[in-house]
Protein: Villin headpiece, villin/Gelsolin, villin headpiece domain superfamily
Organism: Helianthus annuus
Amino acid sequence: MSMFILAYLSVEEFESVLGMTREEFYKLPKWKQDLTKKKVDLF
């Protein structure tokens, strides 16, 4: 579900909420992506 939410965030919103660019986020291992999403209540 959260993957769909991430798709609707603008570039600015994504960087503001997650603290990194989409490119940086998707380079992370899956477990670290999940941990990052949990920290901002998107998981």
